[in-house]
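Example pasted here:
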Amino acid sequence: MSRRIAILTPDPADRDYHSRWREVFEEESALLRRAGFAVEARAWTDELDGFDLVLPLLAWGYHRAAPAWREAVAGWAARGLNVRNPPDVLGWNVDKSYLGRLAESGAPVVPTIYVDRVDEAALHEAAARFGSAELIAKPRVSASAWMTIRWSPGGSLDGAPEKPAMIQPFLESILDEGEPSLIYFAGAFSHAVAKVPSPGDFRVQPEHRGIIAPYAPAADEIAAAETVLAAVGEDLLYARIDLCRDATGKPLLMEIELVEPDFFLSGDPGKGAAFVEAVVGALAN
């Protein structure tokens, strides 16, 4: 009998259910089916008993229901479901305050201030501390640049986060060099892409017309990514490490995506072989 794998998808009640998740599901599931697995799409809000492995790879929109997500993750752990990445990782990776913990463990992280509320006073204080004329503010629980603003003194707060947030200096390199994303499976580097914003924008995600292209990471970017993985210190099936260079040219961690990252497998020279091999290993163990 084929081993059963569930790939978690958006909650049908969330607007991301009407996004492009289906095309990504078809890409990922086709690889796993060719390897002999039975693959099903299941909303992350569904019951998940009976699967040999649960992959939360397309649980897009969970950030708009963070309390329900944490409750679901705790339930999976309590029932002993084989969820990878592990449930504890799926819990802490939701809140981007993890960047502070990784920085304390030696990871090269974009300087970040955490605030309960984004207002003029908090932004001016951050600008002074960072010595930066431009800032990025986004929710601590967020995805796909949701409620993310680029701000400079005198700028509008329209669209700013309404709940606990993080403030970072805006790194100019993202406008031309983009945001390199390094993808790892079972701790080993697989491939990378560069995500560059469309002219006039600063957001790199496909949902915002970001331009995605295969990318050959430099040695210092590989070193930065592996330092981040060492700081995480978890047994990860997959990780996507998003970097950006600061004004000195040093690569810094923007985010490490451990819940539902797009792997951009169309840019993988290995055509997804490392992804499938990692899944085989997760089932064997």
Helices lie at 21-34, 66-78, 87-92, 98-104, 120-130, 173-176, 219-232, 273-284. The first helix runs from residue 21 to 34. Residues 112 and 279 are 34 Å apart (CA to CA). The radius of gyration is 19 Å.
